[in-house]
Amino acid sequence: AGKVELHGKLIEVEHSVPKRQRSRKLQIRNIPPHLQWEVLDSLLAQYGTVENCEQVNTDTETAVVNVTYGNKDQARQAIEKLNGFQLENYSLKVAYIPDEMAAQQPPQQHPQGRRGFGQRGPPRQGSPGATTRQKPQSDVPLRMLVPTQFVGAIIGKEGATIRNITKQTQSKIDIHRKENAGAAEKPITIHSTPEGCSTACKIIMEIMQKEAQDTKFTEEIPLKILAHNNFVGRLIGKEGRNLKKIEQDTDTKITISPLQDLTLYNPERTITVKGSIETCAKAEEEIMKKIRESYENDIAAMNLQAHLIPGLNLNALGLFPPSSSGIPPPAVSVASAAAAASYPPFGQQPESETVHLFIPALAVGAIIGKQGQHIKQLSRFAGASIKIAPAEGPDAKLRMVIITGPPEAQFKAQGRIYGKLKEENFFGPKEEVKLEAHIKVPSYAAGRVIGKGGKTVNELQNLTSAEVVVPRDQTPDENDQVVVKITGHFYACQLAQRKIQEILAQVRRQQQQQKTLQSGQPQPRRK
Asked: How many CA atoms does the CB half-sphere of 72 hold within 13 Å?
């Protein structure tokens, strides 16, 4: 028997529920407090259609949700598989909620509403457990650039002013005075809740304005925000729509530094906002809201992957600049779980792989960059060889990028290519970048990738949400290899590649064993 809490009452629930009391509704308790919603969503979706999933407010540190499945059978499967399921060292507890109780009064809807699986809305704040405690600090700090001559006024006598701001806004503020010696501007990093960051930003703008008046400084002092390039494409939006909307809504003029100013060591762009203090402060809220949203979507997708791709070191992705720039590496649980499962067994070098990625022919210039700068930097950054094959013909819509390197290099190189296509607006703001990748597998192993009656390939597609096709009747090439085609957004495509490489490694190991057996003594070959 288990206890279920519903509307503040504890109710005994039998696990061996008589059939007539079985329902489509389950309560799941002991959910890790920092678990991303997306991870929970994908876990629940494995057992059927989730019609509803609502958080129940509790005083426990772990989170509790009530879930409604499409039918009783799906709920039964979920309870069998998820009760006692280990998630980040927490053991889930699942019980039925009998129909008549659930009908009495609906549980409190999640304050931000429920994100349906198909609809993309802003992510719910962080994780299920976050709603019960104080507003969490945002993982994305606000980074500002201020003219060097105002730094003294912002710090104040013996640091009094800056201490005051941190206290008032409950934030941690770093003024990077040592960075860019002799530069006309210095970066400031503010860690706080989104509201805390905005208040601190406004106070700093007011201090600069007052200091400018006192020192008869007459030039306009715009607000300058620094943001990682990975998030800027989504801030701008297709044909600049998102940015235009922020300008109109806040009555400001916003410009963004060009891509050419980026280097691998400085992945940030400068967003310059001109207007009054009031309007600039409004614009800051909107800009950072968009950037935090992009960051949370990326982290959610990465958390999901880290559960599924063993041996992936998230810090190596280069999504986040080194921590001096204030973005912490993703949640520890992910990084440590990934670090613990390093790729190759027994300390061998990870094997080099070759992947053919197909990109829009029009995007080739953007990937190569001026005088080949971008592709060279990319190759160095990822530790992979990256070549672009000649066009198949004059009207070819796609071009093939040949990427050679171990798994982590593949992840970094492909990730950057996907990101670049998004930034350069080859895909719309609401569109996921979806590309086709080909990997070659030995023809004798193709059957293993397909599985009996297509079972393996179907499981692969369900697990990764990528489309995986092994075209039939292929003639193997001179190395006796055939092509597997994988189409999907970045994480889906990566996951499918990793899973297929796992299958191939298994086939290779079995072949090795057979060889050793045969060389040891003649043995009848087992079918």
From this structure: 10
Residues 6+ apart with CB under 8 A from 25: 66, 67, 68, 69, 75, 96, 97, 99, 102
Distance CA 340, CA 342 (A): 6
Maximal CA-CA distance, the chain: 95
Q: Which of 514, 120, 453 is nearest to 301 (CA)?
A: 120
Distance between first and last Cα of the chain: 49
* 191 Cα distance to chain centroid: 21
Angle at 489 between CA 230 and CA 503, to 5 degrees: 120
List, for residues 320-360, the tens digit of each pLDDT value: 333 333 333 333 333 333 333 333 333 445 678 999 999 99
16 within 8 A of 95, measured Cβ to Cβ? no
Whole-number Å distance between alpha carbons of 478 and 228: 45
Domains and CATH numbers, the chain: 2-96 (3.30.70.330), 142-299 (3.30.310.210), 353-513 (3.30.310.210)
pTM for the model? 0.42
